[in-house]
Amino acid sequence: MKLVRFGPAGEEKPGCVDPQGQIRDLSKHIADITPEVLAPQSLAALQALDITKLPLVQQQSIRLGCPYIGTGKFIGVGLNYKDHAKEIGSDLPSEPILFTKWCSPTGPYDDVRLPPSANKADWEVELGIVIGCRAKHVDVENALDYVAGYCVINDISERHYQLEKGGTWDKGKGYDGFGPIGPYLVTKEAIKNPQNLRLWLKLNGETMQDGHTSNMIFSVAYLIHYISQFTTLNPGDLIATGTPAGVGVGRSPAIFLKPGDMMELGVDELGQQKQTIF
User: Half-sphere exposure (CA, 13 Å, Cβ side) for 130?
Assistant: First the structure.
């Protein structure tokens, strides 16, 4: 099932996408797509609906927001692709590198404003994991049972803040708008193997990233297991699982985002995003 939220920022309504790619209105069944809705029993009730009987949404010029509301923790994973670690000259990590994104998630087509002093803004297409039930000290073998679904994330990063201002990476990851999500939250039963997905990003029409989740150092299941040893994961928590090679800082010479640039990105089976920088 593909869940969406549609409408002006702050006024989004819950919806889903039917087999023909049309948006259907879920607001007669749920007030919004919240962490409570992402719990297994609630998701099962939505999946039992005949979505072809739900009201159609007139899609012309309709905005899509973040596909759910109520992200408690937005956790990033650094250097989790072998080719990405290689391109920036880093050794492969022996354990997952974790950081937090302070930003409030935005919609998949919302424009992205750079910080006033930004000079090294970068892109990162990533597979996102949305947690559906409380996970604490979980086993790797059962870790996927705690997933509500998956989504596309653009982990936009200001490298100057991240790498040159000392301390943790969080300063370069948390600016407003630095985490577009969506267009959909695709429930987990629709994704047979999260380690078998292509992900890509274009900048101004030129392919920058073209990777595959099979190249992850630490799998989706392992990340959920690992993170749950250090913090309790709750419904609505979001994990950005890392990015493949092709980021701007890894190029020679480096390429960074500037006003007017357009990013297009996507993950197999999870849809595509498009943002303009200003």
Answer: 34
Number of domains in the chain: 2
Comparing CA positions, the residue from 143, 106, 147, 148 lying closest to residue 2 is 148
Q: Which helix (H) or strand (E) holds 217?
A: none
At 60, the pLDDT band (50, 70, 90 cuts) reads confident
Per-residue confidence (pLDDT) for residue 59, from 0 to 100:
81
Residue 69 CA to residue 238 CA, distance in Å, equals 11
Whole-model pTM: value is 0.97
Per-residue pLDDT tens over the stretch 164-214: 999 999 999 999 999 999 999 999 999 999 999 999 999 999 999 999 999
Q: What order do you get walking across the sheet with 147-154 strand by strand?
A: 23-25, 13-17, 2-6, 185-187, 147-154, 125-131, 238-240, 74-78, 97-100
φ, ψ (nearest 5 deg) of residue 66? -55, 135
> What's the count of helices (H) and strands (E) in the chain, helices before strands?
5, 15
Q: How confident is the model over 145-161, as a mean pLDDT? A: 98
**Residue-range definition of the domain harbouring residue 8:** 2-53
Assign 174 to helix, strand or coil: coil
Please determine, for residue 35, whether its predicted confidence score (pLDDT) is greater than 90: yes
- Give the integer Cα–Cα distance in Å for 250 and 7: 37
Examine the domain organization and report whether 81 and 35 are in the same domain.
no
- pLDDT tens for each residue of 256-266: 999 999 999 99
Cα–Cα dist 28/175, whole Å: 35
Q: Are 122 and 249 in contact (CB under 8 A)?
A: yes
Q: Give 105's pLDDT tier (boundaries 50, 70, 90).
A: confident
Q: Is the dihedral of CA 78, 83, 87, 89 positive or negative?
A: positive
Residue 164 and residue 203 in one domain: yes
